[in-house]
Amino acid sequence: MTIYITLALLFGFFIESIFGFAGSIISLAILGFFVDIKTLVTLILYVSTVASLLVVSTDLSSFSKKEYFSMAKLAIPGAIIGALLFNYLSSEALLKILAIFLLGLGFKSFFEPKLKSNFKNLLLFISGIIHGVFGLGGVVAIGTMKNSLANKSQVRVTFAIFFITLNFIRAIQYLIQSTVDTTEIIKFWWIPAPLYCAIWLGHKVHLKISEHLFKKGISILLLTSGIFFLLG
Q1: Which helix (H) or strand (E) holds 170?
Q2: DSSP labels, 82-126
Q3: CB atoms inside a 10 Å sphere around CB 77
Q4: What's the pLDDT tens digit per position in 93-119?
């Protein structure tokens, strides 16, 4: 089982290194039927933070401070609320709500309509809540903001730092609430080494794909994720 979990995590975060998100979603999609959801959320919190740090290390110069702060100021309050809700809300209900958002954002991203500022702000706040609960809010945020960043590299690195920030908040609150299963994290203390290889390979693929393919890939990932969580 350890090898299976490791391969699923490496594959998920290889994809995240290409597109800037989806590592947690893919890992949950592959492992959610075999590993307890709350245990999995805790493990992915650790792995996704390490993966985001590795992504940043490959291309820090592409970080956009302006867009980061515009997202963080709205998503951080949501993440605090989401982490508090982690103990109390039904996982199934929240995943269905997330699925509807993902499908809407996926279809929207194919046609690329302009979002009104207030609606965009609401989506970023909601992304924080979803990230606080499951660590999946990045998919909502990236579907909302991908066209606000200058290029694919800015999307990839700016969102990696965004995820690190929200994961730090989640980790603190989970520890305070005694909801972190450190046993699972300790079991996978060694995963940063193979994860680095997956992130490095993903970065090489990222550099090769076009801006058009990058944006279409994000749209497809959003739709696929939404369908999975809706039917799961």
Answers
A1: helix 152-176
A2: HHHHTTTS-HHHHHHHHHHHHHHHHHHHHH-PPPPHHHHHHHHHH
A3: 15
A4: 767 777 787 787 777 767 666 667 888
